[in-house]
């Protein structure tokens, strides 16, 4: 079937082929490299946690190996060699290293077979634990059911995890299906993960494993109360992207903002570092059953929604291929887009419908993440509420998956609970009254909506050809996406990129690939 937009499927297929070639070229670059954040993630998956003199133990161990010039072999080898030789646990080894009572590089190398066997045993135990969390999520959903799509996605951002819990429970009782705990401003630029429960944060709450645990327990409790599984979302973007992915997998988060390009464009994180980190983080999210959200919607906050719509689609094609290379299925790809047309534009609603319907038809199995108007919200709360209503209408008419609710007080202040209540009521009213409207609507052949979708698709294919010709790295340097230019050797975090040696070893990468392949063949579990 051609769908309501009568899209040229040859163009869609060409876009996917080109995007795959772009992603594979980057993947070839990635496969020869690791990062300090990936190595810290390996330690966390081995069970290393805590701080020494306020410095996270994973940072102490990895930085020590980096300074010694041996991290290119992978932290797993040095840690497991110490475990075999001392009989200590990974946590105990890390604590001894932090206290300078043990040097990983000064220990003689024991039998490599024993080292690898130890790593594989520890890896199996952690991956089994993560898979058990995935099965527990499935159990809860079967027991309690869940909200209907589009899931109502609501943000809490007080800075205090315990106050976040109070707001999250209230939001769930009002009808929210996903609670997103916004990170404190600037955390994406930390090259370490804060530790423990936190009660101070500006513009949000720190992403820590303890905060994840506290919020997960609270949502499980309120889920039992309301008879609906409540999903938890956080952000595994930034310099600690894979570490936060691992923490989320260990604490049963359900949704993660996990984008290959967002950190490069909007946080000036080095493109090499981010692209390497996203591959491993998405492997973790895939195995944990976590839906990833991508950040293409942000492109339209710096570029025009009419002129740059094709850049959103091109980026979605590339993000899809990066995700597939990491073993992430389409059903976990919350590809991002946004309702960001200028409200003064004639027929802007038609253009929004074209864009949203196009994403739905091109990515039919993805739980698309649809973002509300922000760029053109003025502080007029009455007009803003109407803009959000149109956004909700487009969502239900085009079958979106995840609806990040718009707030009428956008651009004025962090929304109060009553603002969130009005947003939920707005969405529920429209979703209820237009639940099956999409089944009744056809678009006029060669009408404004169809023509707009065809134009955007054609321009996206042309852009992908250009990116393929130049390489993704060069395209990012030239500012093709979001009108933002970044340097291949600039930005934050490049010093944390490591060239792998021929004997590099990451047992979790090996184990995840094996288990994800089994999952694809239906043999996992």
TrEMBL record:
Q: Which GO terms describe its molecular function?
A: catalytic activity; cobalamin binding
Pfam families per record: Lys-AminoMut_A (PF09043)
Q: Where is the D-Lysine 5,6-aminomutase alpha subunit domain?
A: 5-508
Classification via InterPro entries: Cbl-dep_enz_cat (IPR016176), Lys-AminoMut_A (IPR015130), Lys-AminoMut_asu_sf (IPR037086)
Q: What protein am I looking at?
A: D-lysine 5,6-aminomutase subunit alpha
